[in-house]
Specification:
Keywords: Oxidoreductase. InterPro entries: NAD(P)-bd_dom_sf, SDR_fam, SDR_oxidoreductase. By secondary structure, the chain is an alpha/beta fold. It contains 4 helices and 7 strands; from the N terminus they run βαββαβαβαββ. Strand 5, helix 4 and strand 6 form a beta-alpha-beta unit. The C terminus is likely disordered.
Length: 200
């Protein structure tokens, strides 16, 4: 597996979305237990109460469809630790049902959350890695996709669309970044045991 370009020591700063439950909660707990610095976010900040309140943890209410809440959380993290090393775009959900029966507004919300949310955060991450982090350090973006990003099933059309879009976006951006920036993008596709990890 390629090196992320980031030395994952105790001072590594992780920024994780969707930490209220499931994989996001497990990731946040693991990062915290390892003694790293954690920026844990969720739409409801009270859902992050399982994390202790100490100097290695920042908790923020963040909705990935809100650019304002994204910027506020990132700026607060930078003010505290002067950098962010790893962004994990985990927040998302699966909209299920017959394609024709699902309203356009519900379908658009699926894409806003699963695709445009990670896009917004990825663009901010690129800026942080280039302009804020120590020169040449770069950073890593991990996109939490799924098997649904390359395999399809009936009743999940908009979910699949969001994950296919996220993977295509990530693979394209990975080819755009200047190698000298030391920026890595990674697609994580849970769907079985073990999880599948794919570098973009």
């Amino acid at each position: 597996m390629p090196s992320s370009g980031v030395a994952l020591g105790r001072e590594t700063v992780w920024f994780v979305t969707g930490c209220s439950s499931g994989l996001g909660k497990a990731l946040a707990q693991t990062i915290y237990d390892a003694g790293h610095r954690l920026v844990a976010t969720a739409r409801d900040v009270d859902s992050l109460s399982y994390l202790s309140d100490d100097t290695n943890v920042l908790k923020f209410a963040l909705d990935v469809i809100s650019q304002g809440s994204i910027i506020a959380a990132i700026n607060s993290a930078i003010q505290t630790w002067n950098r962010i090393d790893v962004f994990i775009n985990n927040a998302g959900y699966s909209l299920t049902g017959d394609t024709e029966a699902i309203s356009e507004s519900d379908a658009r919300l699926q894409l806003e959350t699963n695709f445009w949310g990670p896009v917004r955060i990825t663009k901010e991450a690129l800026r942080i890695f280039r302009e804020v982090n120590p020169k040449g350090q770069g950073g890593t973006v991990l996109q939490i996709s799924s098997m649904g990003g390359w395999w399809t099933a009936p009743g999940h059309s908009y979910y699949h669309a969001s994950k296919f879009a996220l993977e295509g976006f990530t693979e394209s951006v990975a080819q755009e970044v200047n190698p000298d920036w030391n920026i890595k993008l990674m697609i994580v596709a849970p769907g079985g045991d073990p999880y599948e990890f794919r570098w973009a």
